[in-house]
Design goal:
The complex is a heterodimer of chains A (443) and B (571).
Chain A lengths: L5 H4 L8 H11 L2 E3 L12 E4 L15 E7 L13 H9 L1 E2 L11 H10 L3 H4 L5 E4 L4 E4 L11 H7 L4 E5 L2 H7 L5 E3 L13 H14 L3 E6 L1 H8 L8 H24 L5 E6 L5 E2 L5 E2 L2 H5 L8 E5 L3 E6 L6 H14 L3 E5 L5 H4 L8 E5 L4 E2 L11 E2 L10 E4 L9 E2 L9 H8 L16
Parallel strand pairs in A: 3-9, 3-10, 4-20, 7-8, 7-9, 12-17
Antiparallel strand pairs in A: 1-2, 2-8, 4-19, 5-6, 10-19, 11-18, 13-14, 14-16, 15-16
Chain B lengths: L4 H4 L3 H5 L13 H15 L8 E4 L6 E6 L16 E8 L7 E9 L6 E6 L7 E8 L2 E2 L3 E4 L11 E6 L10 H7 L6 E4 L33 H11 L3 H9 L1 E4 L10 E2 L2 E2 L4 H4 L2 H15 L18 E5 L3 E5 L15 H4 L9 H10 L9 E6 L13 H11 L18 H13 L5 E5 L5 E7 L5 H4 L2 E7 L8 H5 L5 H11 L3 E5 L4 E7 L3 E9 L9 E10 L6 E3 L12
Parallel strand pairs in B: 1-11, 9-10, 10-11, 15-16, 16-17, 17-19
Antiparallel strand pairs in B: 1-2, 2-5, 3-4, 3-6, 6-7, 6-8, 9-21, 12-13, 14-15, 18-19, 18-20, 21-22, 22-23, 23-24
Classes of the chains: A alpha/beta (443), B alpha+beta (571).
């Protein structure tokens, strides 16, 4: 489930919302809003870090630019010549990995974090959108800057004297990447409920940030995902979704044209990918595990569930001494529930899933056409969901005129969201050891 | 092409004394070897290698080689007589056998119908090899084969010949000629009905079942000797021999390798009262198949270790070929109007073990190749025929077994008769987000290109597809016009089926031929080639149509031209 959880929406809670933190950064002077030549008139609010990191060794080719465009929630089969001509042209003219995959849990925050860190959730600390925070005693979104435990390529670039920018349409992405980038767009206006800025505004911010000209710009376009979540015709004609695809494609076309008009295209790498794809369920196709767990004598009152749409994360909150027995029962109950594809213990299958302790004691994936709705049947009414394996396939292609992307190349290799950071690092010539990234550079 | 033992000095005894690897010491010209071989055949009074050579199931380091020797004139297939014979074999990196990389000997005899099957190991991946056999002073023709690429190789393409349903009595195997004439194939995929069980006068050419050439033995094959004789007869076909010698083959069976409409404990064309018990008959058919085909059954070339035919072959990161056996484990076909049985989850077409294996094959686990190709003996796309008049459905049913007279929408001999298993496979593909799944199918003597709908009923609206199915026509087995004798009626039938099944994008009910499929990371394209009159040995072959599926799309679209490299004479 992509929506903002109750915990982080509660202003009385000590968990500070991302926008509030952004405002504090401006009030305290840690960041300042761009003005003058680098901020277009009447344009988006782009802040810049007040103290830029001391420049280290100046890279040999500082004219290079990398743009990572995340078409949030897009399915690979939605890139077509007729529906999305600009994206299709980028794919056909660049290098394409049709076998690309999102990584578990197939949610927005963990996969964006994997893009920028190049490693799995047991190292990032971010396995899903929502987790049960044991210290907090609440389910919350992983939208705090401190939630990411490892350096991102943003920070690695900054440390080497490059400049970076984030243009992230969703409040929780804005939050989790925090003040890492040199330039940071404060997403506005955001829609109520969805907590995201429409692509037309997000793209305008990206175009405005081109004026600041960061070496790396990381852009999330949220409409395809957000309209997909809300599309009650998702299982049939996909009316809202199709509208979003057409518009987002248009926005991408604007961005590419701006690069070409500015002469930047010839020295650019443009990465286009999704964080996950999308699946739709009917109103009654929900799975609610909470009452099933509550009906068990041992588990009653001692299981917390973080609902992630296509995945439920279950946490044993009782005594450690009873954890093994509790996990066995949680697994058995989840596996017996209609619509559950599989349930597993991240700790017991650590090597396979690499989700880390934050993922809890049991993770359950739903089948295609189903969704989790916990703790209540009405907790997750939205038709479009992801997080489960049905939503793993993603579009993934590279383009740009920097001469590092062979035109028309198609590869059978299984690219993943983790490949973004090492690709960007390689593009800028960052040196790194073999263990820094688990993804692979695709140039 | 043939290489003579006399000219090379590599007699059978010399070969048997020199097993292992190492360069050969003599090179010979084609003419020299042909002359020597013919001279040896004259001296012996018969040809020892009269059934050709074959290779199959290529792995990165291994390939199965096959031949059959006729040690005496009387030791014909199925005769059960003839002496034990030691056969030498060589594998070389060049056609002249100047660089022999593997060699050895193999002793065969009447217990295995004098067939020879060797799993040659220690080969290099993605490499073309030449092979030949020697025995009794004669040398076989030279075969060419190619190993699969290493598992992590990034292939630019894989080109596969597709063929099925070759009925000796219905005509000549021009489709095999078309495959043999291609120099651009990595392998040939045979999807079943490699031979037919019928006796003369049954299931022949045209509405009157005329035999263009008659089966041996002159009765339905039932006993082990019958199956052996029939295999032996088919393998005397010149075009089939050339196609086997030219390319490695990957094969599976359908029903006619045993008998029509087979299932786990019986068959439509098996009468226990007169033909004995079913398990025995099937075991004989499987035994003969194992003896006569270049295939690893139960994972080996050994004849003694079982008849499991479903298996995987991998071609780098590009493709994994999953070959199904849909006859051995399936439940009996339901009645044509028995909807409850058709949907009964306790009935199966795969069997539980094969279903688990298939689902395990069709995954997106890290390291799984991009294209998940299924060698699928019977059609999996749902086909409904609502709205067709019964006179039409009867004609279609005669060809394909697709239809009951009352127009019920299922062919109960294909996946349409086992809808629970199909739902399980399709649900698995959806649940796991598996992309680029390609079912390659034979069986129904017609060409199809289909998308695979999650729900056929509302596909026109949802267009939710989990894969693509491509169906090749038959080599010779009767199609719609052959049965009706009225080709002018076919277009209306095809149009009605296409209209009723929006996921079916291409249907050709009236042609025989073969397909050439090319897989690349970007797309799969299938070219259909059709033949003229199957009653004519030299009937022409022409390109008919091409369809393509783009990676990740689960859709098929018409392609404007056949694949690059298609010979001009068949364009």
């Amino acid at each position: 489930m992509c929506g903002t959880t109750r915990a982080c929406a509660d202003p009385a809670h000590r968990h500070v919302r991302p926008f509030e933190r952004g405002a504090q950064a401006l009030r305290t002077g840690r960041r300042t809003l761009l003005t003058g030549a680098t901020a277009a008139a009447g344009a988006a609010a782009i802040s810049v870090a007040a103290s830029r990191p001391a420049s280290a060794v100046v890279p040999t080719d500082t004219r290079r630019r990398a743009y990572v465009l995340v078409i949030d929630g897009c399915r690979p089969d939605e890139i077509t010549r007729t529906l999305t001509p600009h994206l299709w042209a980028l794919r056909q003219g660049g290098a394409w990995w049709p076998n690309a995959r999102s990584m578990p849990v197939m949610e927005t925050i963990p996969n964006h974090v994997m893009m920028m860190t190049g490693v799995r959730p047991d190292r990032t600390g971010v396995p899903s959108n929502a987790v049960y925070d044991r210290a907090l005693g609440e389910v919350r979104d992983l939208d705090q800057e401190s939630d990411i435990r490892v350096p991102t390529v943003i920070e690695r670039l900054n440390a080497q004297g490059f400049t970076t920018g984030t243009v992230l349409s969703k409040e929780y992405l804005y939050g989790v990447f925090g003040e890492r980038a040199t330039y940071r767009w404060e997403p506005t206006p955001t829609l109520p409920v969805t907590g995201h800025a429409p692509d037309v505004f997000t793209m305008q911010a990206a175009l405005d940030m081109l004026e600041a000209d960061p070496h790396l710009m990381f852009v999330n376009l949220g409409d395809i995902d957000r309209f997909g979540h809300a599309d009650v015709t998702g299982g049939t004609v996909k009316a809202l979704r199709t509208t979003a695809l057409v518009d987002t494609d248009h926005q991408v076309g604007r961005f590419v044209q701006a690069l070409k008009d500015a002469g930047t295209w010839e020295r650019s790498l443009v990465m286009v990918l999704a964080d996950h794809s999308m699946d739709w369920s009917d109103g009654s196709d929900y799975i609610t595990l909470s009452p099933l767990q509550e009906a068990d004598d041992l588990l009653a009152g001692q299981v917390a569930i973080a609902d992630n749409g296509g995945a439920d994360l279950l946490y044993w909150t009782g005594p450690d001494a009873q954890r093994d027995e509790a996990v066995d029962r949680m697994l058995a109950i989840a596996r017996s529930a209609d619509g559950v594809l599989r349930a597993f213990s991240p700790a017991r299958e650590r090597a396979r899933y690499r989700l880390g302790d934050e993922a809890g004691d049991v993770v359950a994936f739903c089948r295609a056409g189903r969704r989790f709705s916990d703790p209540d049947p009405w907790s997750n009414p939205i038709p479009g969901n992801h997080g489960h394996p049905a939503t793993r396939p993603i579009p993934f292609f590279l383009s740009g005129g920097a001469g590092v992307v062979p035109s028309g190349q198609v590869s059978s290799a299984q690219a993943s969201t983790m490949d973004v950071a090492p690709t960007v690092a390689t593009f800028f010539g960052l040196r790194h050891g073999s263990r820094v990234y688990e993804g692979r550079a695709r140039i | 092409m043939l290489s003579g033992a006399a000219a090379t000095g590599l007699t059978a005894s010399a070969l048997t004394a020199s097993t292992g690897t190492g360069p050969a010491t003599a090179a010979t010209s084609t003419h020299q070897t042909q002359d020597a071989d013919e001279a040896a055949a004259r001296r012996a009074g018969h040809r020892v290698f009269r059934h050709g050579v074959a290779s199959g199931d290529p792995l990165p380091d291994a390939v199965v080689l096959w031949t059959r020797v006729t040690p005496t004139r009387e030791a014909s297939p199925g005769s059960g007589i003839g002496p034990r014979t030691t056969v030498g074999w060589q594998v070389a990196a060049d056609r002249a056998f100047t660089r022999v990389v593997r060699r050895g000997r193999f002793t065969t005899g009447r217990g295995r119908d004098h067939t020879v099957k060797i799993d040659v190991t220690g080969l290099a991946p993605a490499t073309t090899y030449y092979y030949r056999f020697t025995a009794l002073g004669q040398t076989s023709r030279t075969g060419r084969t190619r190993t699969a690429p290493s598992h992590d190789a990034a292939l630019a393409s894989l080109r596969v010949g597709m063929v099925s349903c070759a009925n000796w009595q219905a005509g000549y195997f021009a489709a095999y000629r078309g495959l043999a004439d291609r120099d651009d194939l990595d392998l040939v995929l045979h999807l079943g009905d490699y031979l037919y069980e019928y006796g003369p006068g049954e299931y022949g050419y045209g509405p009157d079942d005329v035999d263009i050439r008659s089966h041996e033995p002159a009765h339905e094959m039932v006993g082990l000797a019958d199956y052996r004789r029939r295999h032996g007869q088919y393998k005397t076909d010149r075009d089939l021999q050339r196609a086997h010698a030219r390319h490695p083959w990957v094969v599976t069976w359908d029903d006619h390798e045993t008998t029509n409409d087979a299932y786990d404990d019986g068959a439509e064309n098996h009468q226990p009262d007169t033909e004995g018990d079913w398990p025995t008959r099937r075991a004989r058919a499987h035994r003969a198949y194992d003896e006569w085909m270049p295939v690893r059954m139960a994972g080996t070339a050994d004849l003694r270790d079982g008849s499991r035919l479903f298996r995987r072959l991998r071609f780098g990161t590009l493709a994994q070929l999953n070959m199904l056996d849909l006859r051995t484990y399936r439940s009996q076909q339901p009645g044509l109007t028995d909807g409850a049985a058709i949907d009964d989850p306790d009935r199966t077409i795969t069997g539980a073990q094969q279903m688990a294996w298939l689902k395990d094959s069709l995954t997106n686990d890290a390291g799984t190749p991009q294209w998940k190709v299924v060698g699928n003996p019977v059609m999996i796309a749902p086909v409904t025929f609502a709205g067709l008049p019964s006179r039409v459905t009867r004609a279609v049913d005669d060809v394909t077994g697709l239809l009951p007279d009352d127009g019920q929408p299922y062919n109960v001999d294909q996946w349409d008769g086992y809808t629970a298993d199909r739902r399980e496979v399709f649900a698995h593909l959806q649940d796991e987000g598996v992309t680029d799944v390609l079912f390659l199918t034979g069986d129904i003597h017609s060409g199809w290109a289909c998308e695979l709908p999650v729900e056929a009923g509302d596909y026109a609206v949802t267009r939710e597809s989990v894969g693509v199915e491509l169906v090749c026509a038959s080599v010779t087995s009767g199609n719609l016009k052959d049965i009706t004798g009225a080709p002018e009626a076919t277009p209306a039938v095809e149009a009605a089926i296409l209209a009723n099944n929006p996921h079916v994008k291409h249907l050709d009910f009236d042609n025989h031929g073969f397909c050439v499929l090319e897989l690349t990371p970007e797309r799969a394209q299938c070219d259909w080639f059709v033949i003229g009159d199957r009653a004519e040995v030299d009937t022409p072959i022409t390109w008919s149509v091409s369809w393509t599926t783009e990676a990740s799309s689960n859709r098929v679209t018409r392609a404007a031209a056949p694949l690059a490299g298609t010979p001009e004479e068949v364009r």
